[in-house]
Amino acid sequence: MNVTIYHNPACGTSRNTLAMIRNAGIEPTIVEYLKNPPSREELVGMIADAGLSAREAIRQKDTPYAELGLGNPDLTDDQLLDAMLAQPILINRPFVVTPLGTRLSRPSEMVLEILPETHRGAFIKEDGEKVLDAEGKRII
Length: 140
Hints:
Glutaredoxin
């Protein structure tokens, strides 16, 4: 299965998402989007495919979001996209693209919605939260 993750290795949610993809037996294409940001077309496509607006896809925490006045409700999606492309740290992460769909994997287990059920046993997130049992089934 062809899977792409827009990844930030400094982010625990992104690391957990990558680990869940690998737990499904998939080695994804990893795009470190801070070094290699998506094109405008790619970003617009991912946001739309995930069923989000630009405002829902922008990252506020630990970014220049407030300094840039991006909370202004009068800003258009195009203006928010311009900001994300100018400063990729504003792109929320991790976006994951598979043939089964696209998700902003926040929380990380959102990725399970677009992966095949081929998980290799239990999965526990970095913070100790159990996500999959020994049979690879989701713990609810």
